[in-house]
Amino acid sequence: MADQGPLVPGLRGLLLTYFMPESCYDEFFLHFNFLDVKLPQILKLIGAQSAEGLSFQTILLELLAITGTMAYSIANQFPFSSWGEALFLMLQTVVIGFLIQHYGGRTTRGFVFLVVYFALLALLLSPVTPVSVVTSMQAFNMPAIIIGRLNQAGTNFRNGHTGQLSAISVFLLFAGSLARIFTSIQETGDTLMALTFVISSACNGIIFLQILYYWNSSPKHKKNKKKSQ
């Protein structure tokens, strides 16, 4: 029998039926390829030509947390396997941030966002930045994650739907952060890293539960409902 990965067959069947194609499941849970985690979200935004329901403030806080983890890991010379997905998540999150601005009619602001972010990233990873600053950023990850996810949860609640949020991407972020709790303990032994992923798992779980709750609600459905009242 082929290896089905770390998930029990029942849960695997549920994921393949409702949330993701088998190729996506294999890449994430068998090959641990995190490059595609936010790709479904990017494709959904491009396909809809809309970023409705996504909070740019949440994206900025996500970037702060992801960048902090990446810089902290590099500064402490952790193995790439323990933080490599942060690099791919960062690149994909930056793209999503630009698309939010672009589809909101603020393309110029989107380009400014890209230039400023990568300039700050270069400065952060340079020898000029003290290690204490990088460590402080990693410590701030937890409140950044909590504030960012609660902000997105509040946006979903106010809208009464999750807009263009991708169920696949949200679930993969949730599952990935759960997996990273154990891999960070095994590969780095760093309590701060592990605790960050615990908080991230809980916050991503809230958003995923909202997607399930608002499954049959959509921006179009809400607009039609308002017109009929």
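That was protein one. Protein two is written in the same sequence-then-structure order:
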Amino acid sequence: MSKKEISLATVKEHNKPEDLWVIIEDKVYDVTKFLNEHPGGEDSLIEVAGRDGTRGFQMAGHSSEAREIMVKYYIGDLAASDIKKKCPISCKGIGLTIGAVVLGITLVYVLKRGLNKN
């Protein structure tokens, strides 16, 4: 069964406990009726109302049973134009690599200068 694409702007409009949508892994869920049943409490869903809750969902380590429950609340996919492009290498990894290269070049430069003075 193919579901429709839903824009991020539309998801953002559904940000109240009586009308609550969330994005998990680029899929949109209407969890309004699940709010009172959520084992983690209402607050964890209200906190991400109308937004992407993927990080919190993954960090909570939801079970396969939780993923099965989600199926009945699935209403569509996040619009392709709103999906953030995923970098194959994290920005943190790139930053650490650049920092290590700069540190290495600096160390070589300092060592060569020190050896040349002696």
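The chain has a mean pLDDT of 86. Keep this in mind for the problem set.
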